[in-house]
């Protein structure tokens, strides 16, 4: 806030002339007229004044894709524009809570976008809050789609009360990147240049040790500071590999994590950083730079960083699913889905929205080039996708994905991630013991669990 | 100024001769007041009432109506949640970081500018121009300056030889300071003008008399300027404190309460609770608590000013 | 120096404030070298600080005139690259929603000013000139209203606008800001100071209150109308928290909200971001440069009153 509004404090004498005010007023009116004369302002004006429909006949589409994903999405939107006559208005907002707040408020206020992106773990909350329109089989049929066109795992996971509110677009799991050069020197590659399979913690630590000897710095890198999502994803992957139960139950009203398993996993994460195999303090950008510059043999992150890696000159890298260090394969993941925010739609509007979604699905291959695993089976099972390298190497992780437990305070970029991820990071940095961290997590989450869900 | 003072002032002017000529006109008066009164009731009174009522319910954003009555549950939950107290602390922290420099520096600039005499328009332009800019503009300008490594500030530090300049807005300890510096740059002009005006009101004779007595410039400032500006200073300090408690714009725009929760202030907690978590009832309780704090400071201001008025009378 | 002297001098009637420029410099050249040194130091400090204060704005301007690719590299290249380009400005003015934001800001600001000036002056006229039942209560309510900080009410105001179906219209931004109690207070103070002769004469001629208000009081109130107009205009233009939550669609956003979303959506287009900040602030800067003296005098005058 500024010191005060200019008018916060009463004043006594003014000597502004009427002429000056009129001058200002005319200036404003002129600006108005000028602005109104430009195209597009007409509908904004009437919408702002009388609440008429903004952009009739247009498809409005909101997403939260920045960086590489954002650029890729823009190209896909251009393709849509070349094949569809109706105008398209696309807007990108900041990833995470700000985006979902914007979508929610817009829907409440009666002016939502026609189509919006939503993480699978967040759209369950949006649908429970009555902010989404159900997508029926008839609507799918309008553009020739049916439920069986999609990977069963995300398709089933998105359902709320047996009804569909979201169309899965991709799966984006946590994966393992490796620096080919470093791993070659460490003897971790097989004859064809692929990474030798790593199974179990012993082989994992052996691989890291070998890599560390080559790099002189670290074996593997994962972000630990300034970034709650990554520590959570790393933890959740290993926790689920040990068969850990979901963290939340009853829509978030109960904390159902396995205490011993959590402590064991946290201790293991700490042992990796304490022994120097993995760095204690590195942020999102730092952790990938370590691998890019050969100071680390491996790098753990979501598959979307493939674009960043491909742009590094002289870097040869590969990607595989996160190795099974424990009992069963598992990978933390989320899915981007298309949702239809709740609003009055006539049939042409529904058709336009569905056609837009279909156009995006048809371009799943382009989207997959950004690292994401398509949820659209025709693309997933196509020969073109199978030939994409290194994507083909980690497609298998789609079968073992674990989604975050549903709760009104959970999901990608949510309070849950923020609370838990921050503590996990502290453990990795050696700033908190597993017991203390879990204590803190439990009390913070319990407060949310005890709070009645605002979605009811 | 209190209602009482004003009413007394009016009584003074309503001398017998005048009173006869003042028309009694209840209906007309209410008609004149009605339009403004409508907005006052709708957008000032009702929101306050709503805020109090819904703080006792589990009102949610996505359902209509107030919801279920839960008594003091929202207050209990807020007052026992570490998030609330840290938000309160960050708000106070921001106020502590901004009030002293905004008062002292503005005073210094004004005194110097007054002494120097010429070039006032230029100084006024330099210090006051930022004040008319929208918060969003200054946030963009300063976020850019604070860009890690390549921004103006970090580059400047590198130039001075600092090995690894810390990114300001990403560091939990520096973020609030960064926001405070931005605020200082943005709003100092207002206090500068207030002080300048107050300074010009001090009669020259006082300084002349002091100079004749052999007082140096510094002594003149200390014994004449500062005491005579005490009213302005009180005003400035109290206004700044209230503004600090209401802080929202810069924090939302520059850090969104981050890194982590390091800069999350009360009003940000209120809007997050209401609009992201959908919990309107809880947010209302937090708003009421903030409202009470601001009210207390405002009342302090009234009391202090009434005391000053009385002393001067 | 005796307290008597101080008191005697202080009780002299205060002149009107002129913050525009003092008639003569206030410094007293007294004892010689130490005072001269003081003045020199004062100059140096002031000029240094003034330059320091101008740097952020100038930096923003310089960056906005540099290409996006150069800006993305860092501060050094921005400083050294003097091949100025207007690309950022042409991009913003031809694509995107900037014009829509100007429209929204212009409409909301002008409309609020109109409503505030008319309604507040009417209410103030009643409070100042008319005796009526409940006058003291109303005035107490006005004073009390000043105590309420509007930002704290953002949540209930949102709920109310939602219930009224006004979300995502300009009115959602205009209406809550019409309840500007300060304006009533300022108008009333001004009216109280107006001589009543003209009004008395008009009353004798049989004019009604509305006539008097419109034809006698208002024309005499140009100064205060101008001041309130400017203050309200700037406050509404710069308001962020209200339009941030009640306007969702990028096409309807006011300048501050538009700028706030730009940072997220422009990515690495750093020059464009700085240019948008400048374009967003430009109308107000122009306003300030034109009305500089009045604005400053207004602020200064408010300080005296306290």
Provide key terms for this protein.
heterotrimer; B: 313 residues; mainly alpha; MetI-like fold; globular; C: 306 residues; 16 helices; 74% helix
Tell me about this structure.
The complex is a heterotrimer of chains A (456), B (313) and C (306). Chain A is of the alpha/beta class and 456 residues long. Chain A has 2 domains: 149 residues, Periplasmic binding protein-like II (D-Maltodextrin-Binding Protein, domain 2, 3-Layer(aba) Sandwich); 206 residues, 3-Layer(aba) Sandwich (D-Maltodextrin-Binding Protein, domain 2), CATH 3.40.190. Chain B is an all-alpha fold. Chain B has one domain: Orthogonal Bundle (MetI-like fold). Chain B is 73% helix and 0% strand. Chain B contains 15 helices and no strands. The radius of gyration of chain B is 25 Å and the shape is globular. The N terminus of chain B is likely disordered. With 306 residues, chain C is mainly alpha-helical. Chain C has a domain of 171 residues: MetI-like fold, CATH 1.10.3720. The longest helix of chain C has 36 residues. Chain C is globular, with a radius of gyration of 25 Å. The N terminus of chain C is likely disordered. Classes of the chains: A alpha/beta (456), B mainly alpha (313), C mainly alpha (306). Chains in contact: A-B, A-C, B-C.
Distance between the termini of chain B: 14 Å
* Total of domains of chain A: 2
Q: What multimeric state do the chains show?
A: heterotrimer
* % residues in beta strands of chain B: under 5%
Order of helices and strands of chain B: HHHHHHHHHHHHHHH
Fill in the CATH topology of the largest domain in chain A. Answer: D-Maltodextrin-Binding Protein, domain 2
Total of helices of chain B = 15
Structural Rg of chain B: 25 Å
CATH class of chain B: Mainly Alpha
Low-confidence stretches of chain A: 9-24, 33-39
Q: What is the share of helical residues of chain A? A: 40-55%
Proportion of strand residues of chain A: 5-15%
Residue-averaged pLDDT of chain A: 87
CATH class of the largest domain in chain A reads Alpha Beta
How many alpha or pi helices of chain A? 20
Q: Average pLDDT of chain B, to the nearest integer? A: 86
CATH H-level superfamily of chain B: MetI-like
């Amino acid at each position: 806030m500024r010191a005060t509004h200019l008018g916060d404090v009463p004043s006594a004498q003014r000597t502004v002339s009427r002429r000056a005010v009129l001058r200002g007023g005319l200036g404003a009116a002129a600006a108005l007229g000028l602005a109104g004369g430009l195209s597009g302002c007409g509908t904004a004006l009437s919408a702002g004044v009388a609440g008429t429909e903004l952009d009739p006949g247009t498809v409005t589409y909101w997403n939260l894709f920045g960086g590489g994903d954002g650029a890729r999405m823009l190209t896909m939107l251009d393709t849509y524009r070349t094949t569809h006559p109706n105008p398209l208005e696309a807007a990108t907002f900041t990833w995470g809570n700000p985006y979902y707040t914007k979508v929610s408020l817009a829907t409440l206020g009666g002016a939502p976008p026609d189509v919006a992106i939503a993480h699978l773990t967040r759209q369950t909350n949006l649908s429970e809050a009555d902010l989404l329109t159900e997508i029926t089989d008839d609507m799918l049929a309008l553009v020739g789609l049916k439920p069986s066109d999609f990977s069963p795992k995300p398709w089933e996971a998105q359902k709320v009360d047996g009804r569909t509110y979201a169309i899965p677009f991709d799966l984006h799991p946590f994966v393992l990147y490796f620096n080919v050069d470093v791993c070659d020197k460490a003897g971790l590659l097989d004859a064809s240049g692929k990474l030798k399979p790593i199974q179990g913690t012993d082989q994992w630590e052996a691989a890291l040790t070998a890599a560390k000897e080559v790099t002189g710095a670290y074996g593997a890198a994962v972000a630990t500071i300034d970034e709650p999502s990554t520590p959570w994803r790393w933890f959740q992957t290993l926790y689920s590999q040990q068969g850990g139960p979901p963290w939340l139950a009853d829509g978030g009203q109960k904390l159902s994590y396995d205490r011993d398993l959590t402590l064991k996993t946290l201790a293991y994460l700490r042992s990796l950083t304490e022994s120097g195999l993995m760095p204690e303090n590195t942020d999102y950008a730092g952790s990938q730079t370590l691998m890019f510059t050969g100071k680390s043999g491996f790098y753990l992150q979501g598959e979307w960083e493939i674009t960043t890696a491909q742009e590094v000159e002289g870097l040869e890298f590969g990607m595989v699913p996160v190795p099974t260090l424990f009992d069963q394969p598992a990978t933390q993941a989320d899915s981007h889905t298309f949702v239809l925010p709740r609003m009055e739609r006539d049939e042409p509007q529904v058709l336009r929205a569905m056609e837009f979604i279909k156009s995006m699905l048809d371009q799943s291959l382009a989207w997959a080039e950004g690292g994401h695993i398509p949820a659209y089976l025709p693309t997933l099972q196509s020969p073109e996708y199978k030939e994409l390298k290194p994507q083909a190497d980690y497609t298998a992780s789609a079968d073992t994905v674990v989604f975050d437990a549903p709760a009104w305070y959970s999901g990608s970029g949510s309070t849950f991630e923020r609370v838990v991820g921050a503590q996990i990071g502290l453990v990795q940095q050696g700033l908190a013991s597993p017991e203390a961290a879990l204590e803190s997590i439990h009390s913070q989450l319990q407060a949310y669990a005890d709070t009645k869900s605002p979605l009811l | 100024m209190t209602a009482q003072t004003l009413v007394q002032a009016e009584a003074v002017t309503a001398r017998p001769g005048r009173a006869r000529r003042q028309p009694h006109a209840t209906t007309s008066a209410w008609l004149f007041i009605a339009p403004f009164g409508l907005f006052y009731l709708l957008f000032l009174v009702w929101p306050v009432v709503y805020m109090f009522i819904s703080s006792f319910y589990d009102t949610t954003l996505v359902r209509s109506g107030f919801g279920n009555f839960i008594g003091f549950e929202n207050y209990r939950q807020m007052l026992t949640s570490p998030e609330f107290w840290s938000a309160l602390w960050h708000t106070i922290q921001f106020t502590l970081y901004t009030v002293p420099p905004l008062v002292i520096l503005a005073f210094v600039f004004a005194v110097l500018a007054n002494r120097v005499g010429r070039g006032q328009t230029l100084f006024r332009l330099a210090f006051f121009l930022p004040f008319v800019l929208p918060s969003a503009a200054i946030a963009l300008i300063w976020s850019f300056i604070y860009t890690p490594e390549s921004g103006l500030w970090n580059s400047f530090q590198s130039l001075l030889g600092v090995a690894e300049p810390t990114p300001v807005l990403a560091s939990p300890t520096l973020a609030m300071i960064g926001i405070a510096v931005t605020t200082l740059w943005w709003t100092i002009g207002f206090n500068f003008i207030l002080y300048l005006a107050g300074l010009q009101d001090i009669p020259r004779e006082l300084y002349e008399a002091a100079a004749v007595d052999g007082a140096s410039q510094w002594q003149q400032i200390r014994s004449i300027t500062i005491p005579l500006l005490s009213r302005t200073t009180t005003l400035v300090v109290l206004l700044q404190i209230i503004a600090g408690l209401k802080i929202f714009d810069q924090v939302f725009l520059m850090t969104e309460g981050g890194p982590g929760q390091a800069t999350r202030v009360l009003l940000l907690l209120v809007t997050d609770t209401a609009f992201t978590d959908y919990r309107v009832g809880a947010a209302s309780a937090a708003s009421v608590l903030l409202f009470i704090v601001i009210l207390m400071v405002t009342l302090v201001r009234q009391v202090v000013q009434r005391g000053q008025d009385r002393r001067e009378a | 120096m005796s307290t008597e002297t101080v008191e005697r001098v202080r009780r002299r009637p205060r002149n009107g404030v002129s913050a525009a420029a003092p008639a003569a410099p206030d410094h007293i050249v007294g004892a010689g070298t130490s005072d001269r040194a003081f003045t020199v130091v004062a100059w140096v400090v002031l000029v240094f600080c003034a330059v320091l204060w101008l740097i952020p704005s100038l930096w923003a301007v310089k960056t906005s005139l540099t290409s996006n690719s150069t800006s993305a590299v860092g501060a050094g290249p921005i400083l050294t690259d003097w091949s100025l380009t207007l690309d950022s400005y042409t991009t913003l003015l031809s694509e995107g929603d900037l014009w829509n934001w100007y429209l929204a800001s212009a409409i909301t600001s002008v409309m609020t000013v109109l409503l505030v000036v008319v309604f507040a002056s009417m209410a103030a006229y009643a409070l100042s000139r008319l005796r009526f039942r409940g006058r003291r209560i109303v005035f107490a309510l006005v004073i009390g209203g000043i105590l309420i900080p509007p930002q704290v009410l953002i949540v209930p105001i949102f709920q109310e606008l939602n219930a009224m179906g006004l979300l995502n219209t300009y009115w959602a931004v205009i209406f809550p800001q019409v309840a500007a109690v300060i304006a009533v207070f300022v108008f009333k103070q001004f009216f109280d100071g107006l001589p009543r002769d003209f009004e008395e004469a008009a009353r004798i001629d049989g004019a009604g209150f509305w006539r008097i208000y419109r034809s006698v009081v208002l024309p005499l109130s140009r100064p205060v109308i101008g001041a309130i107009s400017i203050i309200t205009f700037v406050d509404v233009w710069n308001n962020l928290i209200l339009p941030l939550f009640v306007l969702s669609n990028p096409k309807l956003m006011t300048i501050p909200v538009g700028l706030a979303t730009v940072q997220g959506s422009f990515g690495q287009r750093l020059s464009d971001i700085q240019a948008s900040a400048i374009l967003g602030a430009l109308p107000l800067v122009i306003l300030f440069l034109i009305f500089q003296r009045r604005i400053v005098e207004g602020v200064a005058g408010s300080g005296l009153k306290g």
